[in-house]
Structure formats: structure tokens, C-alpha cells
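Journal club prep, notes for RB
We'll compare a predicted complex against what the paper describes. Inputs for the 2'-deoxycytidine-5'-monophosphate case:
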Amino acid sequence: MTEKKQVPVITVDGPSGSGKGTVGQMLAQKLGWHFLDSGALYRITAFASQAQGIDMTDETQVAQVAKDLDIKFIPQKNAPPSVSLAGKEIGDALRTEEIAELASQVAVMPQVRAALLLKQQAFARLPGLVADGRDMGTNVFPAARLKIYLTANPEIRAQRRYKQLKEKGFDVNLARLLEEIQVRDARDQARTVAPLKPAVDAHILDSSGLDAQEVVQKVLDLLDSKTGSIK
Ligand code: DC
């Protein structure tokens, strides 16, 4: 067990558009805990590698970028944390479909995953951490107090991504988004190192017919039933 034992961790894993980011942030805010958007680390690795003009298929070089990342997450109220790279705010450039696709490609590389592992575990600080991603419960925080695996059907996930991207002013096409999401999910599930899958002790929640608030409540109920109220 690599995570610090005394720090409670809730992991929220699942495919794109399952709602894990929104749910994770709301949970962290409700509990007053820290929040880790681990996908952002893969996106930043892709973004920084692209900005440095390195060969994105060269695992050693991309892993070196991941090791050297100088990043800060600045928490925002009711919004995802803003990200700064080497002291410069990145803004929504991380949220494009191009960066999502490149992130999924570099996430296949074992050296990149190894470089990001300790960085992710360092987010576990008191009073607690909510960690969202693909392998939080299986790999990064295997001893987490509560593990959630969020799913939703692909059409609903594509619609959620569509809405999020439109709100950020991106020009997106729903049918293409659905295809891209399915390609990325397939790659994330098929990779040999830390693939997207529920931990054996994860609670699987289908968010298809639920809003974020309802999912958060279900997770809080699970937390209470496991540990008694810890708020
Ligand atoms: O959650 P996201 O869309 O920001 O993640 C972008 C990509 O990063 C996703 O396609 C897979 C990868 N990822 C991963 O492999 N492991 C994680 N813990 C989080 C994200």
C-alpha cells in the first residue's frame, strides 16, 4: 500500500462523460477534501510534449516531460481547478478533443504512467482526497476508503461532453464526439498497463438517468454506510 494510511481517499473512476469530474468536485467541496483530476496530468503531459515539439510516439521523451512537469492546480469555487504550467495559466487549452486524444495515446505508455504515479499519490493530504480518473481505485490508491466506478451509456456521455465543450465555446459535432469517445474508451480499456476497469471492491453506479447531485448523494450514503459520518 503506497498511499498514506491516515488520509481517507475516495476514488471515482470511469469513462469520459460518466460525470466523474463533476461528481468528484462536488464531493470534494461537500466534504472539504482535496481533489485530484488525474486526467489533467495526462492532458498536461500531452500538451507540454506537443508545445515542446517532441515526437509524441517516443515514450522516453514523453516520460521525461511527465517527470519534469512543473504544475499547480488552483482550486476554484464551483468550477474545475485552474492549471498552471511553469507558472503560466493554461486555461481551456487542455480541454480540447485534440489534447484528449493525445492524452489517451500517451496514457498507454508505461514510463509515462510510472512518472505520474508519485505525483498523483502526493495529492493525498488531510483531511482527505477525492481522486478522479481511470485507475485511481485499481492502481494509484488501492487502499482507498471508498471506490466508485461511474458509468453511463455512450450516447448520454457524448451529450454531456458536447454540452461541456459547447459551454466552453468549442465547435463540436455530436456524432463525431460519440465516435471519438468510443475510440478512446476502447483504447483506455484495452491497454496493458492500468486499464480502465472497476476495482474488484468498487461500487458500480450508472449515472445515465441521474443528475450529478443525485450521484453525489448516493456516494455520500455509501460513505456513511461504510464508515459512519466522517464529515
Ligand atoms: O479524464 P480525461 O478525459 O481528462 O482523461 C484524458 C485521458 O487520460 C484519458 O483518455 C485516459 C487518460 N487517463 C488515464 O489513463 N488514467 C487516469 N487516471 C486518468 C486519465
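Talking point for the session: The chain has one domain: 9-221.
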